[in-house]
Amino acid sequence: MTRCLDCGSQRSSDQCPVCGLTSAAAELVFRRRLVLQTAIFLAGSLLFPYLSQLYPPLDLDVMLVFFGLIFFVALTLVVLLDRQARAHKDIEVLRHLFTGLIPIPFILSVALLLNGRLDSVKNVTYHPTSVEGRYLMRGIVRGTRRLFVYSWREGRRYERLAVDSDDYDRFHEGDKINVGEEPGALGIPWFYGVYRATQPHVSMPPDATMHAGKAQASPSAPQK
Ligand SMILES: [Zn+2]
């Protein structure tokens, strides 16, 4: 008993009783679909590292490693599917695994976009810390730039901030900085921005200074 490569139903004759395709036709349809699905997955895999930098989570590097594993597994499944189909072996389990992985880069991208987009600037908290190291890997589209700073989060020693090229060039080891962090609409804390601390713990980023100015302009405002 073999299964139809197109629809997966069992068949005993060459023609599938459900979709009506012969085994040769079903293999052709299967192969075309596999190419299309692989293309969609690859497109998502190119998109995810790019979109994840718009509202970069603090744990971006962990997520990129996790996604790298998914990417590797998916491409392995494509190779296995192709081989098994050629050998006319059962592919149902592999097929389901692969189909399940295709939407993951899109789901992750949308989650990170919503997490940052739906978050309010009012939620930014600033943490004084200092630059302990920098990391640069040049890429074709945009490179990977990180500032390593001492972490303010419990159980962590360092944060790896996904900065843009301006901030990467602006800050160097030993610089005192304030790091803006947002909690994330979906609960994934993300990196809002990095600001130079001219005087330790006193200097404030631009919008925080604005708040301070407003408070001074209306002295009757209740003080916390
Ligand atoms: Zn069929």
Poorly predicted sequence stretches spanning 5 or more consecutive residues: 209-224
Helix content: 40-55%
Given the helix and strand composition, which structural class is it?
Answer: alpha+beta
> What average pLDDT do the residues reach?
88
Helix and strand run: EEHHHHEEEHEEH
Q: What best-fitting shape do the alpha-carbon axes yield?
A: elongated
The Cα radius of gyration reads 25 Å
User: How many strands, what sense, and barrel or not for the largest sheet?
Assistant: 5 strands, antiparallel
Bound molecules: zinc ion
Number of helices: 6
Number of E-state strands = 7
Distance between the first and last residues' Cα: 76 Å
What percent strand? 15-25%
Describe this protein's structure.
It is a single chain. This protein has 224 residues and is α+β, with helices and mostly antiparallel strands. Helix content is 44%, strand content 19%. It is built from 6 helices and 7 strands, in the order ββααααβββαββα. It has helices at residues 23-51, 60-86, 92-101, 104-117, 165-170, 206-217; strands at residues 2-3, 10-11, 125-137, 144-150, 158-162, 176-182, 190-196. It has a 5-stranded antiparallel sheet. It has a two-stranded antiparallel ribbon with strand order 1-2. α1 packs antiparallel against α2 (60-86). Mean pLDDT is 88; it is low at 209-224.
